[in-house]
Amino acid sequence: MSSKIFLLILITIGGIFIFSACEEEEKAITREYILLGVDTAGITESSVILKWTRSNSFEFDHYQIHRSKVRGFTTSSSTFIKDIYNQNTTRDTVFPLLAGTTYFFKLKLFTKDGNSTESNEASAKTL
User: Fold this and answer.
1) Which of 21-25, 42-46, 111-115 is least confident?
2) What's the sign of the alpha-carbon dihedral 27, 56, 86, 31?
3) Rounded distance between C-alpha atoms, residue 101 and residue 49, angstroms
């Protein structure tokens, strides 16, 4: 979706006012949504296989995997697991994990300009 914006510029030169108007197109900024899930066949006592939708952004920089034992966690350096720089990667194994423990995961998508978007939260309990 785009809309038009109008700019009015007022310049004073030697006491004479000069008006200038221009029209520019305002571009909508969209954020890509990444859907994160767990490959239930890939759950073991010490690992979980995560899978996600591929980013189609031409501004893609990298993915970041985060893990916590707390539902609804906020991603931070303490929840960071790893960076993935291959845009075509859509699954990864997270290990080592403790047996019989529930973990919560989020994936962050970073763009070249430093912006990021978080996925939904996925959870899995190790065997």
Assistant:
1) 21-25
2) positive
3) 15
